[in-house]
Design brief:
The complex is a heterotrimer of chains A (about 300), B (about 100) and C (about 100). Chain B is mainly alpha-helical and about 100 residues long. Chain B contains three helices and no strands. Chain C is elongated and about 50 Å long. The chains are: A mainly alpha (about 300), B mainly alpha (about 100), C mainly alpha (about 100).
Amino acid sequence: MTLTFIFNVVLVALLLTVATWIIVARAAFSAAVAFVAYGLLLALVWVELSAIDVALTEAAIGSGVTGMLLLGAASRLRETEATAVPAGRPLTSAVAVLCALIAAGLAAIVLFPPSIVFTLAPQAMARLPESGLGNPVAGVLFVYRAFDTLLEKVVLVLALVSVWSLAPDRFWGGVPGLHVYQQPNSVLTLLAQLLAPLGIVMGIYMFWTGANNPGGAFQGGTVLAAMWVLVMIAGLQNVPSTDRRALRYLVVLGPSIFLTIGLAGFLLANGFLAYPPGYAKPLIIVAEAALTLSIGVTLGLLTAGPPERVAR
Amino acid sequence: MTLALNIFTVLAVSAGTFFFLAGTAGLLRFPDALTRLHALTKADNLGLGLIVLGLLPLVERSFGALKLISIWLLVQLSGAIVAQLIADFVRRREPLS
Amino acid sequence: MTSFLIGAACFVLAATALGLLRILHGPADADRMMAAQLLGTGGVAALVLLATALQSPAIVDVAFMLALLAAFASVAFVMSAPPSHSKTPPVVDPR
Protein backbone atom coordinates (compact mmCIF):
# COMPACT_ATOMS: atom_id res chain seq x y z
CA MET A 1 0.00 0.00 0.00
CA THR A 2 2.51 2.61 -1.13
CA LEU A 3 1.63 6.26 -1.40
CA THR A 4 1.78 6.13 -5.18
CA PHE A 5 -0.83 3.38 -5.10
CA ILE A 6 -3.11 5.51 -2.94
CA PHE A 7 -2.61 8.42 -5.32
CA ASN A 8 -3.57 6.26 -8.27
CA VAL A 9 -6.61 4.85 -6.49
CA VAL A 10 -7.89 8.34 -5.67
CA LEU A 11 -7.24 9.42 -9.25
CA VAL A 12 -9.03 6.45 -10.79
CA ALA A 13 -12.00 6.76 -8.42
CA LEU A 14 -12.34 10.42 -9.31
CA LEU A 15 -12.03 9.66 -13.00
CA LEU A 16 -14.74 7.02 -12.90
CA THR A 17 -17.05 9.33 -10.95
CA VAL A 18 -16.57 12.16 -13.40
CA ALA A 19 -17.10 9.79 -16.33
CA THR A 20 -20.37 8.58 -14.82
CA TRP A 21 -21.31 12.19 -14.25
CA ILE A 22 -20.82 13.02 -17.92
CA ILE A 23 -23.11 10.18 -18.93
CA VAL A 24 -25.95 11.00 -16.54
CA ALA A 25 -25.78 14.78 -16.88
CA ARG A 26 -29.03 16.28 -18.09
CA ALA A 27 -27.86 19.45 -19.76
CA ALA A 28 -25.33 19.38 -22.54
CA PHE A 29 -23.45 22.28 -20.99
CA SER A 30 -22.93 20.41 -17.72
CA ALA A 31 -21.74 17.35 -19.61
CA ALA A 32 -19.32 19.45 -21.66
CA VAL A 33 -17.89 21.10 -18.53
CA ALA A 34 -17.45 17.69 -16.90
CA PHE A 35 -15.79 16.43 -20.07
CA VAL A 36 -13.22 19.20 -20.00
CA ALA A 37 -12.53 18.39 -16.35
CA TYR A 38 -12.20 14.74 -17.34
CA GLY A 39 -9.62 15.67 -19.97
CA LEU A 40 -7.58 17.65 -17.48
CA LEU A 41 -7.68 14.70 -15.07
CA LEU A 42 -6.56 12.35 -17.82
CA ALA A 43 -3.43 14.46 -18.13
CA LEU A 44 -2.64 13.44 -14.56
CA VAL A 45 -3.27 9.80 -15.45
CA TRP A 46 -0.85 9.98 -18.37
CA VAL A 47 1.78 11.46 -16.09
CA GLU A 48 1.29 8.54 -13.72
CA LEU A 49 1.74 6.17 -16.66
CA SER A 50 5.01 7.94 -17.52
CA ALA A 51 3.68 9.16 -20.87
CA ILE A 52 4.56 12.84 -20.54
CA ASP A 53 4.17 13.65 -24.23
CA VAL A 54 0.64 12.26 -24.19
CA ALA A 55 -0.08 14.16 -20.97
CA LEU A 56 0.94 17.41 -22.65
CA THR A 57 -1.25 16.67 -25.65
CA GLU A 58 -4.20 15.63 -23.48
CA ALA A 59 -4.04 18.81 -21.42
CA ALA A 60 -3.84 20.90 -24.57
CA ILE A 61 -6.43 19.17 -26.73
CA GLY A 62 -8.83 17.97 -24.04
CA SER A 63 -9.43 21.39 -22.58
CA GLY A 64 -8.48 23.62 -25.47
CA VAL A 65 -9.79 22.36 -28.74
CA THR A 66 -12.20 19.58 -27.79
CA GLY A 67 -13.61 21.58 -24.92
CA MET A 68 -14.37 24.55 -27.14
CA LEU A 69 -15.87 22.34 -29.84
CA LEU A 70 -18.18 20.56 -27.39
CA LEU A 71 -19.22 23.79 -25.69
CA GLY A 72 -19.91 25.38 -29.05
CA ALA A 73 -22.02 22.40 -30.07
CA ALA A 74 -23.89 22.51 -26.75
CA SER A 75 -24.70 26.18 -27.17
CA ARG A 76 -25.86 25.66 -30.76
CA LEU A 77 -28.14 22.82 -29.70
CA ARG A 78 -29.58 24.64 -26.74
CA GLU A 79 -32.91 25.56 -28.34
CA THR A 80 -33.62 22.00 -29.38
CA GLU A 81 -32.56 20.45 -26.09
CA ALA A 82 -35.99 20.73 -24.52
CA THR A 83 -37.66 18.82 -27.32
CA ALA A 84 -34.92 16.25 -27.84
CA VAL A 85 -36.07 12.64 -27.57
CA PRO A 86 -33.79 10.66 -25.23
CA ALA A 87 -32.47 7.31 -26.38
CA GLY A 88 -34.66 4.40 -25.32
CA ARG A 89 -33.83 1.94 -22.55
CA PRO A 90 -32.86 -0.99 -24.86
CA LEU A 91 -30.36 1.09 -26.82
CA THR A 92 -28.79 2.54 -23.67
CA SER A 93 -28.50 -0.93 -22.12
CA ALA A 94 -26.94 -2.36 -25.26
CA VAL A 95 -24.36 0.44 -25.37
CA ALA A 96 -23.60 -0.04 -21.67
CA VAL A 97 -23.08 -3.79 -22.10
CA LEU A 98 -20.80 -3.32 -25.12
CA CYS A 99 -18.73 -0.69 -23.33
CA ALA A 100 -18.42 -2.94 -20.29
CA LEU A 101 -17.24 -5.79 -22.52
CA ILE A 102 -14.61 -3.59 -24.16
CA ALA A 103 -13.42 -2.36 -20.76
CA ALA A 104 -13.25 -5.93 -19.47
CA GLY A 105 -11.26 -7.00 -22.52
CA LEU A 106 -8.76 -4.17 -22.09
CA ALA A 107 -8.46 -4.92 -18.37
CA ALA A 108 -7.79 -8.59 -19.15
CA ILE A 109 -5.03 -7.65 -21.56
CA VAL A 110 -3.39 -5.38 -19.01
CA LEU A 111 -3.82 -7.63 -15.98
CA PHE A 112 -2.90 -10.92 -17.69
CA PRO A 113 -0.33 -10.05 -20.33
CA PRO A 114 1.17 -12.81 -22.46
CA SER A 115 4.41 -14.25 -21.14
CA ILE A 116 6.37 -13.14 -24.19
CA VAL A 117 5.68 -9.52 -25.15
CA PHE A 118 6.90 -8.65 -28.63
CA THR A 119 8.32 -5.17 -28.70
CA LEU A 120 10.65 -3.22 -30.93
CA ALA A 121 11.40 -0.68 -28.23
CA PRO A 122 15.02 -1.81 -27.54
CA GLN A 123 15.96 -1.69 -31.22
CA ALA A 124 14.23 1.66 -31.64
CA MET A 125 16.07 3.14 -28.67
CA ALA A 126 19.38 1.67 -29.82
CA ARG A 127 19.32 3.45 -33.17
CA LEU A 128 17.77 6.70 -31.96
CA PRO A 129 21.08 8.61 -31.51
CA GLU A 130 21.75 8.28 -35.24
CA SER A 131 18.92 10.72 -35.90
CA GLY A 132 20.24 13.25 -33.41
CA LEU A 133 17.01 13.18 -31.44
CA GLY A 134 16.87 12.53 -27.71
CA ASN A 135 13.13 12.12 -27.29
CA PRO A 136 12.00 8.61 -28.31
CA VAL A 137 8.49 9.84 -29.06
CA ALA A 138 9.88 12.35 -31.53
CA GLY A 139 11.96 9.54 -32.97
CA VAL A 140 8.88 7.41 -33.55
CA LEU A 141 6.90 10.32 -34.94
CA PHE A 142 9.47 11.68 -37.36
CA VAL A 143 11.86 8.85 -38.09
CA TYR A 144 10.32 5.44 -37.68
CA ARG A 145 6.69 6.28 -38.46
CA ALA A 146 7.11 9.54 -40.33
CA PHE A 147 4.62 8.40 -42.94
CA ASP A 148 1.85 8.16 -40.34
CA THR A 149 2.68 11.64 -39.06
CA LEU A 150 2.49 13.04 -42.59
CA LEU A 151 -0.89 11.43 -43.12
CA GLU A 152 -2.13 12.77 -39.77
CA LYS A 153 -1.24 16.31 -40.74
CA VAL A 154 -3.03 15.93 -44.07
CA VAL A 155 -6.06 14.57 -42.20
CA LEU A 156 -6.08 17.77 -40.14
CA VAL A 157 -6.37 19.82 -43.31
CA LEU A 158 -9.16 17.56 -44.55
CA ALA A 159 -10.96 17.97 -41.21
CA LEU A 160 -10.75 21.73 -41.59
CA VAL A 161 -12.22 21.55 -45.09
CA SER A 162 -14.99 19.30 -43.75
CA VAL A 163 -15.85 21.81 -41.04
CA TRP A 164 -15.91 24.61 -43.59
CA SER A 165 -18.18 22.58 -45.84
CA LEU A 166 -20.84 22.61 -43.13
CA ALA A 167 -21.60 26.19 -44.03
CA PRO A 168 -24.32 27.03 -46.56
CA ASP A 169 -22.99 27.67 -50.05
CA ARG A 170 -23.47 31.39 -49.92
CA PHE A 171 -21.22 31.67 -46.85
CA TRP A 172 -18.28 29.69 -48.27
CA GLY A 173 -15.13 31.69 -47.69
CA GLY A 174 -16.89 33.84 -45.15
CA VAL A 175 -16.16 34.68 -41.54
CA PRO A 176 -16.54 31.97 -38.89
CA GLY A 177 -19.19 32.61 -36.31
CA LEU A 178 -16.96 32.55 -33.24
CA HIS A 179 -18.74 34.22 -30.39
CA VAL A 180 -16.92 37.27 -29.15
CA TYR A 181 -17.11 38.58 -25.59
CA GLN A 182 -19.07 41.77 -25.85
CA GLN A 183 -17.58 43.82 -23.03
CA PRO A 184 -14.80 46.09 -24.28
CA ASN A 185 -11.95 46.79 -21.87
CA SER A 186 -13.06 44.02 -19.59
CA VAL A 187 -10.88 41.75 -17.55
CA LEU A 188 -10.97 39.30 -20.42
CA THR A 189 -9.02 41.79 -22.51
CA LEU A 190 -6.43 41.91 -19.75
CA LEU A 191 -6.26 38.14 -19.59
CA ALA A 192 -5.79 37.85 -23.34
CA GLN A 193 -3.13 40.54 -23.35
CA LEU A 194 -1.16 38.86 -20.58
CA LEU A 195 -1.81 35.20 -21.35
CA ALA A 196 -1.29 35.26 -25.10
CA PRO A 197 2.42 36.22 -25.08
CA LEU A 198 3.01 33.64 -22.36
CA GLY A 199 1.19 31.02 -24.39
CA ILE A 200 3.15 31.87 -27.52
CA VAL A 201 6.42 31.46 -25.65
CA MET A 202 5.13 28.17 -24.23
CA GLY A 203 4.12 26.98 -27.71
CA ILE A 204 7.51 27.76 -29.21
CA TYR A 205 9.20 26.19 -26.20
CA MET A 206 7.12 23.03 -26.60
CA PHE A 207 8.15 22.74 -30.23
CA TRP A 208 11.81 23.43 -29.53
CA THR A 209 12.23 21.13 -26.58
CA GLY A 210 10.38 18.29 -28.30
CA ALA A 211 13.59 17.05 -29.89
CA ASN A 212 15.11 15.95 -26.61
CA ASN A 213 12.41 16.24 -23.96
CA PRO A 214 8.69 15.56 -23.94
CA GLY A 215 6.97 17.98 -26.22
CA GLY A 216 6.77 18.49 -29.94
CA ALA A 217 5.07 20.23 -32.79
CA PHE A 218 1.57 19.10 -31.95
CA GLN A 219 1.57 20.29 -28.36
CA GLY A 220 3.16 23.59 -29.37
CA GLY A 221 0.71 24.09 -32.19
CA THR A 222 -2.28 23.41 -29.95
CA VAL A 223 -1.16 25.99 -27.41
CA LEU A 224 -0.70 28.53 -30.21
CA ALA A 225 -4.20 27.74 -31.49
CA ALA A 226 -5.70 28.16 -28.02
CA MET A 227 -4.00 31.53 -27.56
CA TRP A 228 -5.18 32.71 -30.97
CA VAL A 229 -8.76 31.71 -30.16
CA LEU A 230 -8.47 33.49 -26.80
CA VAL A 231 -7.30 36.67 -28.51
CA MET A 232 -10.21 36.46 -30.95
CA ILE A 233 -12.75 35.81 -28.19
CA ALA A 234 -11.49 38.80 -26.25
CA GLY A 235 -12.00 40.96 -29.29
CA LEU A 236 -8.36 41.97 -29.61
CA GLN A 237 -8.27 40.59 -33.12
CA ASN A 238 -11.02 40.14 -35.67
CA VAL A 239 -12.00 36.66 -36.69
CA PRO A 240 -10.44 36.33 -40.17
CA SER A 241 -12.51 35.35 -43.15
CA THR A 242 -11.70 31.90 -44.41
CA ASP A 243 -10.88 33.00 -47.96
CA ARG A 244 -7.78 34.91 -46.96
CA ARG A 245 -4.85 33.67 -48.91
CA ALA A 246 -2.28 34.02 -46.13
CA LEU A 247 -4.44 31.89 -43.87
CA ARG A 248 -4.82 29.12 -46.42
CA TYR A 249 -1.11 29.11 -47.19
CA LEU A 250 -0.32 28.77 -43.50
CA VAL A 251 -2.70 25.82 -43.19
CA VAL A 252 -0.96 23.86 -45.95
CA LEU A 253 2.55 25.09 -45.16
CA GLY A 254 3.39 22.36 -42.65
CA PRO A 255 2.19 19.33 -44.58
CA SER A 256 3.70 20.74 -47.80
CA ILE A 257 7.15 21.21 -46.31
CA PHE A 258 6.97 17.81 -44.68
CA LEU A 259 5.93 16.25 -47.99
CA THR A 260 8.72 18.06 -49.82
CA ILE A 261 11.26 16.75 -47.37
CA GLY A 262 9.80 13.31 -47.83
CA LEU A 263 10.01 13.49 -51.61
CA ALA A 264 13.54 14.87 -51.39
CA GLY A 265 14.39 11.63 -49.65
CA PHE A 266 14.22 9.97 -53.04
CA LEU A 267 17.09 12.15 -54.26
CA LEU A 268 19.18 12.62 -51.15
CA ALA A 269 18.67 9.34 -49.33
CA ASN A 270 17.29 5.96 -50.20
CA GLY A 271 13.55 6.41 -50.19
CA PHE A 272 10.44 8.36 -49.31
CA LEU A 273 10.83 10.17 -45.98
CA ALA A 274 14.38 8.86 -45.59
CA TYR A 275 16.87 11.36 -44.27
CA PRO A 276 20.45 11.76 -45.51
CA PRO A 277 22.88 10.81 -42.74
CA GLY A 278 23.82 13.73 -40.53
CA TYR A 279 20.98 15.91 -41.83
CA ALA A 280 18.13 14.17 -40.06
CA LYS A 281 17.83 16.54 -37.13
CA PRO A 282 17.92 19.85 -39.09
CA LEU A 283 15.35 18.54 -41.56
CA ILE A 284 13.12 17.33 -38.75
CA ILE A 285 13.40 20.67 -36.96
CA VAL A 286 12.44 22.53 -40.13
CA ALA A 287 9.47 20.22 -40.68
CA GLU A 288 8.39 20.57 -37.05
CA ALA A 289 8.60 24.35 -37.15
CA ALA A 290 6.37 24.52 -40.21
CA LEU A 291 4.03 21.95 -38.70
CA THR A 292 3.73 23.87 -35.43
CA LEU A 293 2.60 26.92 -37.34
CA SER A 294 0.19 24.98 -39.51
CA ILE A 295 -1.29 23.03 -36.63
CA GLY A 296 -1.82 26.27 -34.73
CA VAL A 297 -3.66 27.92 -37.58
CA THR A 298 -5.63 24.79 -38.51
CA LEU A 299 -6.79 24.02 -34.99
CA GLY A 300 -7.66 27.64 -34.39
CA LEU A 301 -9.81 27.69 -37.52
CA LEU A 302 -11.37 24.35 -36.56
CA THR A 303 -12.37 25.80 -33.22
CA ALA A 304 -13.74 28.95 -34.81
CA GLY A 305 -16.16 26.80 -36.75
CA PRO A 306 -17.79 26.98 -40.16
CA PRO A 307 -18.32 30.38 -41.80
CA GLU A 308 -21.55 32.00 -40.72
CA ARG A 309 -21.52 35.28 -42.57
CA VAL A 310 -20.18 36.69 -45.76
CA ALA A 311 -16.63 38.01 -45.85
CA ARG A 312 -16.34 41.74 -45.69
CA MET B 1 21.89 23.40 6.16
CA THR B 2 20.16 20.63 4.28
CA LEU B 3 18.24 19.70 7.40
CA ALA B 4 17.02 23.27 7.82
CA LEU B 5 15.95 23.38 4.17
CA ASN B 6 14.15 20.07 4.51
CA ILE B 7 12.29 21.28 7.57
CA PHE B 8 11.37 24.44 5.67
CA THR B 9 10.07 22.37 2.77
CA VAL B 10 8.01 20.13 5.05
CA LEU B 11 6.50 23.10 6.87
CA ALA B 12 5.69 25.07 3.73
CA VAL B 13 4.21 22.12 1.86
CA SER B 14 2.16 21.11 4.91
CA ALA B 15 0.84 24.65 5.23
CA GLY B 16 0.01 24.67 1.53
CA THR B 17 -1.85 21.39 1.80
CA PHE B 18 -3.74 22.71 4.81
CA PHE B 19 -4.89 25.71 2.77
CA PHE B 20 -6.03 23.40 0.01
CA LEU B 21 -8.13 21.48 2.52
CA ALA B 22 -9.48 24.78 3.81
CA GLY B 23 -10.38 25.82 0.29
CA THR B 24 -12.21 22.57 -0.27
CA ALA B 25 -14.05 22.99 3.01
CA GLY B 26 -15.13 26.38 1.74
CA LEU B 27 -16.27 24.90 -1.56
CA LEU B 28 -18.31 22.32 0.27
CA ARG B 29 -19.86 24.53 2.89
CA PHE B 30 -20.31 28.03 1.48
CA PRO B 31 -23.87 28.93 0.55
CA ASP B 32 -23.65 30.32 -2.96
CA ALA B 33 -21.50 30.59 -6.03
CA LEU B 34 -19.94 33.94 -5.24
CA THR B 35 -18.65 32.89 -1.84
CA ARG B 36 -17.41 29.61 -3.29
CA LEU B 37 -15.41 31.66 -5.78
CA HIS B 38 -13.61 33.29 -2.88
CA ALA B 39 -12.72 29.93 -1.41
CA LEU B 40 -11.55 28.64 -4.74
CA THR B 41 -9.43 31.48 -5.99
CA LYS B 42 -7.99 32.68 -2.71
CA ALA B 43 -7.43 29.69 -0.47
CA ASP B 44 -6.35 27.29 -3.20
CA ASN B 45 -4.02 29.84 -4.75
CA LEU B 46 -2.40 30.51 -1.40
CA GLY B 47 -2.00 26.76 -0.95
CA LEU B 48 -0.31 26.50 -4.33
CA GLY B 49 1.96 29.44 -3.50
CA LEU B 50 3.07 27.85 -0.25
CA ILE B 51 3.69 24.53 -1.96
CA VAL B 52 5.77 26.22 -4.66
CA LEU B 53 7.68 28.08 -1.96
CA GLY B 54 8.38 24.82 -0.18
CA LEU B 55 9.59 23.12 -3.33
CA LEU B 56 12.03 25.87 -4.31
CA PRO B 57 14.96 24.48 -2.26
CA LEU B 58 14.50 21.06 -3.84
CA VAL B 59 14.68 22.20 -7.44
CA GLU B 60 18.14 21.87 -8.91
CA ARG B 61 18.81 24.80 -11.21
CA SER B 62 17.62 28.40 -11.25
CA PHE B 63 15.66 27.68 -14.43
CA GLY B 64 13.56 25.13 -12.56
CA ALA B 65 12.84 27.60 -9.77
CA LEU B 66 11.89 30.21 -12.35
CA LYS B 67 9.45 27.78 -13.95
CA LEU B 68 7.79 27.02 -10.62
CA ILE B 69 7.40 30.67 -9.72
CA SER B 70 6.03 31.55 -13.13
CA ILE B 71 3.51 28.72 -12.85
CA TRP B 72 2.32 30.15 -9.56
CA LEU B 73 2.10 33.66 -11.00
CA LEU B 74 0.17 32.33 -13.98
CA VAL B 75 -2.34 30.50 -11.76
CA GLN B 76 -2.64 33.61 -9.59
CA LEU B 77 -3.37 35.78 -12.60
CA SER B 78 -5.84 33.40 -14.16
CA GLY B 79 -7.55 32.82 -10.82
CA ALA B 80 -8.08 36.52 -10.26
CA ILE B 81 -9.43 37.15 -13.74
CA VAL B 82 -11.56 34.02 -13.96
CA ALA B 83 -13.11 34.95 -10.61
CA GLN B 84 -14.08 38.32 -12.07
CA LEU B 85 -15.51 36.72 -15.20
CA ILE B 86 -17.60 34.19 -13.32
CA ALA B 87 -18.77 36.79 -10.81
CA ASP B 88 -19.81 39.02 -13.68
CA PHE B 89 -21.73 36.12 -15.17
CA VAL B 90 -23.48 35.46 -11.86
CA ARG B 91 -24.35 39.13 -11.51
CA ARG B 92 -25.90 39.15 -14.94
CA ARG B 93 -27.96 36.11 -14.09
CA GLU B 94 -29.34 37.36 -10.80
CA PRO B 95 -29.07 41.15 -10.60
CA LEU B 96 -28.76 42.38 -7.04
CA SER B 97 -32.06 44.07 -6.42
CA MET C 1 11.15 13.45 1.50
CA THR C 2 9.87 11.67 -1.58
CA SER C 3 7.19 9.87 0.39
CA PHE C 4 6.22 13.10 2.09
CA LEU C 5 5.84 14.88 -1.24
CA ILE C 6 3.78 12.09 -2.76
CA GLY C 7 1.65 12.01 0.38
CA ALA C 8 1.09 15.75 0.06
CA ALA C 9 0.13 15.18 -3.57
CA CYS C 10 -2.41 12.59 -2.41
CA PHE C 11 -3.92 15.08 0.02
CA VAL C 12 -4.13 17.79 -2.59
CA LEU C 13 -5.66 15.39 -5.09
CA ALA C 14 -8.23 14.21 -2.53
CA ALA C 15 -9.13 17.81 -1.70
CA THR C 16 -9.44 18.62 -5.41
CA ALA C 17 -11.57 15.51 -5.93
CA LEU C 18 -14.02 16.46 -3.19
CA GLY C 19 -14.22 20.01 -4.46
CA LEU C 20 -14.70 18.88 -8.05
CA LEU C 21 -17.53 16.52 -7.19
CA ARG C 22 -19.23 19.22 -5.17
CA ILE C 23 -19.08 21.90 -7.82
CA LEU C 24 -20.06 19.61 -10.67
CA HIS C 25 -23.12 18.91 -8.58
CA GLY C 26 -23.64 22.60 -7.82
CA PRO C 27 -27.09 23.73 -8.74
CA ALA C 28 -26.12 26.72 -10.84
CA ASP C 29 -24.07 26.79 -14.02
CA ALA C 30 -21.79 29.31 -12.33
CA ASP C 31 -20.70 26.59 -9.95
CA ARG C 32 -19.81 24.19 -12.73
CA MET C 33 -17.75 26.82 -14.48
CA MET C 34 -15.32 26.78 -11.60
CA ALA C 35 -14.29 23.21 -12.41
CA ALA C 36 -11.51 24.26 -14.77
CA GLN C 37 -10.07 26.74 -12.29
CA LEU C 38 -10.19 24.15 -9.50
CA LEU C 39 -8.32 21.63 -11.57
CA GLY C 40 -5.98 24.34 -12.76
CA THR C 41 -4.94 24.97 -9.18
CA GLY C 42 -5.24 21.54 -7.56
CA GLY C 43 -3.99 19.58 -10.52
CA VAL C 44 -1.03 21.93 -10.91
CA ALA C 45 -0.15 21.56 -7.23
CA ALA C 46 -0.30 17.77 -7.44
CA LEU C 47 1.82 17.74 -10.61
CA VAL C 48 4.41 20.09 -9.17
CA LEU C 49 4.73 17.89 -6.09
CA LEU C 50 5.04 14.78 -8.24
CA ALA C 51 7.62 16.46 -10.45
CA THR C 52 9.84 17.20 -7.47
CA ALA C 53 9.26 13.80 -5.90
CA LEU C 54 10.08 11.91 -9.09
CA GLN C 55 12.88 14.32 -10.13
CA SER C 56 11.28 14.82 -13.52
CA PRO C 57 11.34 18.39 -14.85
CA ALA C 58 9.11 17.41 -17.78
CA ILE C 59 6.17 17.08 -15.42
CA VAL C 60 6.57 20.76 -14.57
CA ASP C 61 5.92 21.44 -18.27
CA VAL C 62 2.68 19.48 -17.97
CA ALA C 63 1.76 21.63 -14.96
CA PHE C 64 2.43 24.78 -16.95
CA MET C 65 0.34 23.50 -19.83
CA LEU C 66 -2.46 22.60 -17.43
CA ALA C 67 -2.42 26.05 -15.83
CA LEU C 68 -2.45 27.79 -19.20
CA LEU C 69 -5.24 25.75 -20.69
CA ALA C 70 -7.38 25.64 -17.56
CA ALA C 71 -7.51 29.43 -17.79
CA PHE C 72 -8.50 29.13 -21.44
CA ALA C 73 -11.16 26.53 -20.60
CA SER C 74 -12.63 28.81 -17.93
CA VAL C 75 -13.01 31.55 -20.49
CA ALA C 76 -14.67 29.08 -22.86
CA PHE C 77 -17.11 28.09 -20.10
CA VAL C 78 -18.12 31.69 -19.41
CA MET C 79 -18.59 32.28 -23.13
CA SER C 80 -20.79 29.24 -23.78
CA ALA C 81 -22.92 29.16 -20.66
CA PRO C 82 -26.67 29.13 -21.19
CA PRO C 83 -27.95 32.68 -21.43
CA SER C 84 -30.37 33.90 -18.83
CA HIS C 85 -33.36 36.16 -19.19
CA SER C 86 -31.20 39.22 -18.58
CA LYS C 87 -31.19 42.10 -20.99
CA THR C 88 -27.45 42.31 -21.61
CA PRO C 89 -25.95 39.06 -22.79
CA PRO C 90 -22.20 38.73 -22.38
CA VAL C 91 -21.74 37.37 -25.90
CA VAL C 92 -22.74 39.10 -29.09
CA ASP C 93 -24.63 37.29 -31.77
CA PRO C 94 -22.36 37.22 -34.84
CA ARG C 95 -25.27 38.29 -37.01
